[in-house]
TrEMBL record:
This is F-box domain-containing protein. InterPro entries: LRR_dom_sf (IPR032675). It comes from the Eukaryota. It comes from Hypsizygus marmoreus.
Length: 464
């Protein structure tokens, strides 16, 4: 099957397909998949019609595969003959068959994404797969501008050894690589043009281990990130201890700093053979240290921290005092789905400390609203919680009139956002009231949390 992203067109390729009814222009993204969802059976798909059609789609730039098997040769060969395709994406793919590098050396790619997803076959030859991926990356390294790669597939050492002269953005996803942990500055040493660096490593939620230290203060880090990459603008780190020496190396040009504690989405039969990946939300004490470091970044416009607990008025006050230029602020409790308590703070006491943030337009925050599940409907949110969220949003909006949007953490009871992540965002848009007095907060749907199942997007930065 293939789906034309953003245009509503769908093309089904079966064994009986004679041709593919794709328009010759206007389609920039094409999704190719062999099953509707993880529980549905794999389809018997003939990819030849799509392969023939690729050369007739000059506007097609981005091709995304979500396949159970190794990417088909016929499609990879067609991509190699389609110079207009410059973004290739593999979700939940496997690469343990024969080498595919002869296809990739012919491609004109600028961006590549390879992730493993949550469900993988037990018979994958992992060692062969890692060799094949390393070979593919080596063949594309000189031309890639953006790379999103799974930590389950590529070690720190592999990335360190390859030269990436044009790479602007690196997103390291899924789980922390097994084996040797290298300092972050060493991993990106051969990426001189890097502007966006993200370690989006997810953890299994039921296991608690110390966070990974990517540059120990007791270790001789040969080079500092602030020295090797002074122009780095966006830095994301997940499941990292706040005492990591990387916080002493933050480049002065940073505009975005995210210190997260990501979790895997929920699996069926979770916990049987799950590796013990570390999960490390930030304590309030350590959060104050991070905020103090962030206060020295005069270009910072976005700050995100995943906390052990809900944010306190004192913590919010520290943010406002240290980071006056923020436009986007995210302070969330990583395990909010386990909370059953009412907020110990009034909404006014949480909003008031943020008044110095004159440019803040997007706030994402955890506030406790008590038990979420409706008593007689297992998969619904209590009306009192929804009402409380709207009332809370309007308190924030009245005290912070510059706010355009505000989001609150919500347990993803019924997969409100279409993902299997434990949490979602309850998203509200702030409007001026008709009488010109109190602002109105209007529910505008659910927004996906940082999820294992989807690419991680950099939020746009706009001028105040």
């Amino acid at each position: 099957m293939c789906r034309i992203g953003g245009f509503g067109g769908i093309c089904l390729l079966s064994r009986s397909s004679e041709r593919c009814g794709l328009r010759r222009s206007g389609n920039k993204l094409l999704d190719v998949y062999d099953r509707q969802n993880p529980r549905s059976p794999v389809q018997d798909v003939d990819f030849a019609p799509l392969a023939r059609a690729l050369s007739q789609l000059p506007a097609l730039k981005h091709l995304s595969f979500t396949l159970e098997a190794t990417p088909p040769d016929v499609l990879l060969a067609a991509v190699g003959s389609a110079p207009h395709v410059d973004f290739l994406e593999f979700r939940n793919a496997r690469f343990d068959g024969p080498s595919l590098v002869h296809h990739f050396v012919r491609m004109k790619l600028k961006a590549l994404t390879i992730s493993v997803g949550l469900y993988r076959e037990a018979n994958i030859d992992l060692d062969q797969e890692k060799r094949n991926i390393a070979e593919i990356l080596t063949s594309l390294a000189e031309q890639l501008v953006q790379l999103e790669i799974s930590g389950d597939l590529v070690s720190f050492r592999v990335l360190e050894k390859i030269s990436w002269p044009n790479l602007l953005a690196l997103r390291y996803t899924d789980n922390i690589p097994f084996g040797e942990i290298l300092p972050m500055s060493a991993v990106v040493a051969l990426m001189p043009r890097l502007r966006t660096l993200g370690y989006y490593f997810s953890a299994a939620p039921q296991f608690y281990k110390p966070g990974v230290i990517f540059c120990s203060k007791n270790e001789n880090c040969s080079s500092l990130l602030s020295t090797t990459h002074p122009d780095l603008q966006k830095l994301t780190m997940s499941n990292i201890v706040s005492g990591d020496a990387i916080f002493d190396q933050l480049p002065a040009a940073l505009r975005v700093l995210r210190v997260l504690a990501l979790r895997d989405d929920l699996r069926n039969g979770e916990g049987r053979e799950m590796p013990l990946y570390p999960y490390f939300p930030i304590s309030h004490r350590d959060a104050f240290r991070i905020i103090n470091k962030a206060g020295h970044l005069r270009h910072l416009v976005e700050l995100a921290i995943t906390l052990e607990d809900c944010p306190s008025p004192d913590l919010l006050s520290a943010v406002a005092d240290s980071c006056r230029g923020l436009r986007i602020l995210e302070l969330t409790q990583g395990m909010y789905d386990l909370n059953r308590e009412e907020s110990p703070y009034t909404m006014k006491s949480l909003a008031q400390p943020l008044k110095p943030l004159k440019f803040l337009y997007d706030l994402r925050i955890t506030v406790w609203f008590g038990p979420q599940k409706a008593p007689f409907r297992r998969h619904a949110t209590r009306l009192e919680v929804r009402t409380g969220i709207t009332a809370a949003a309007e308190v924030f909006a009245e005290i912070l009139p510059q706010l355009a949007t505000i989001s609150f953490s919500l347990t993803n009871i019924s997969r409100y956002d279409g993902t299997r992540h434990p949490l979602t965002w309850y998203y509200l848009v702030v409007h001026d009231s008709l009488d010109g007095h109190r602002p109105v907060a209007e529910f505008d749907g659910y927004r996906e949390y940082y999820s294992h199942s989807a690419s991680f997007k950099d939020y746009s930065i706009r001028s105040p």
